[in-house]
Structures are given as C-alpha cells and as structure tokens.
C-alpha cells in the first residue's frame, strides 16, 4: 500500500512494549506520567474513513480556535483544503510551535481527547472521534515558527474555517523530509500535481539548491511537465 504524503515528514510511532502509549500529562512533551482521558465517541462517524478524518480535523480545529491557539492544518487534510482530492486515510496533522505544545495539549485534554507523547520528540499525538491526530512542532526537521504559521491561509475544511499551511510551505516540508532512507516520490507527486499552480517553485529551488533528493524530485516534475524548468514559464 502506498503511504500517504505525511508519512514523509515523520516515522510512524509505535506503541510501547505493553502495546499502550504513555498519555501526555502536561509539562515537557517528553512527560510520561500516566493520566487517563476519554476519547470522544466515534459511534456516529460516517462509514467513509476520509470523511471521518475530516470530521476529526474539524473538531480539533474548532477546539484550537476556541482556545485561541496559533496553529495551521498540515498534511493531506491541508492538501484537501487547498482543493486536492488525495487519500486522507491516515490521520490529521496540525502544526504548532514547540513552546505552545503544553497549552495545546491541555486544551484538547480538557475537551476529553486522549493526548500522549510518542517516542519522537517533535510531536504529540491525540485521538479524536477514533482518528489519529498529530500535533507537529517540527516540519522537515525545522521547528514550526510564528512566521510559518503567519503565512497560513484561512480556508474551509468542510464547514469549519481554519488556518491551513500555505501550499509552498506544505511542499517544502515534504521535500525537506526526503532522505536516502525515506524517499517516496510517488506519494508526493500527486500533491505536486494538485498544488502546482499555487506553489512558488523558484523559491523551493533556491531553498534546496543542489540537495540531491529535492533536486531529483524537482527534475522529475520538469520531465513530467508538471512544472516548467528554472527560468521558464509555468
């Protein structure tokens, strides 16, 4: 099965040896003290998993807005918000600043969501309506910043307006995550096709320079006539 594009910005987290995650209890994102929270019920979710993920994203986005947190929708749901039609059958991603992790976790926990810290130290995880939620404070190895969130655009996710990462920032994070060990061009190619008119490709070329993996992907896009060569019309 082909992985979704957000897999390229992280490695999947796995349960601990007992098959359970350590719930997040505030303080440092590495906190491992057990605290019990109740996930919101999934009984009334639509049978379509894509729609279920959208419902969870809407729920979390509404909670973060109500809590007046700075955030931006990321990952495949953000691509959907920008007009993409990709497969959402994975999870919903939200970009937050590292310094906001504790407050965001508290807001979600107070609403009844389970929030926990996985082994990776650059995100928190939550459960909403039976779906996985990633609260990411690093994208492509770089911390989420106020400037990044400031470039987000307000878009509707179904019926809920929320900030969504700008297309160029979405693609930049995906390209930055390419490595010799994790380089699935096939997962990112559909996103590049869907967002090509909205991405500043020249700025991405400048940002990555001769870095081999991003350069190879950009060359592939040129050969497939998804984007114009550097300096060309596109």
TrEMBL record:
<feature type="compositionally biased region" description="Basic and acidic residues">
    <location>
        <begin position="29"/>
        <end position="41"/>
    </location>
</feature>
<protein>
    <recommendedName>
        <fullName>Nucleotidyltransferase family protein</fullName>
    </recommendedName>
</protein>
<feature type="region of interest" description="Disordered">
    <location>
        <begin position="1"/>
        <end position="47"/>
    </location>
</feature>
<dbReference type="InterPro" id="IPR043519">
    <property type="entry name" value="NT_sf"/>
</dbReference>
């Amino acid at each position: 099965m082909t992985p979704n594009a957000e897999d390229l910005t992280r490695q999947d987290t796995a349960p601990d040896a007992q098959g359970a995650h350590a719930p997040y209890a505030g303080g440092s994102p590495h906190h491992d003290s057990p605290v019990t929270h109740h996930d919101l019920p999934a009984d009334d979710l639509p049978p379509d998993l894509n729609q279920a993920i959208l419902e969870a994203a809407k729920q979390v986005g509404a909670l973060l807005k109500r809590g007046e947190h700075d955030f931006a929708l990321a990952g495949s749901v953000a691509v959907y918000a920008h007009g993409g039609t990709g497969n959402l059958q994975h999870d919903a991603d939200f970009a937050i600043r590292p310094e906001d992790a504790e407050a965001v976790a508290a807001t979600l926990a107070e609403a009844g969501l389970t929030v926990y810290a996985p082994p990776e130290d650059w995100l928190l995880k939550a459960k909403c309506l039976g779906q996985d939620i990633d609260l990411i404070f690093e994208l492509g190895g770089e911390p989420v910043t106020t400037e990044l969130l400031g470039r987000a655009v307000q878009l509707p996710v179904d019926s809920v307006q929320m900030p969504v990462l700008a297309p160029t920032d979405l693609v930049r994070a995906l390209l930055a995550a390419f490595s010799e060990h994790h380089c699935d061009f096939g997962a990112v190619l559909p996103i590049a096709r869907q967002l090509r008119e909205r991405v500043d490709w020249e700025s991405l070329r400048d940002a990555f320079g001769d870095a081999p993996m991003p350069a190879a992907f950009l060359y592939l896009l040129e050969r497939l006539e998804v984007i114009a060569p550097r300096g060309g019309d596109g």
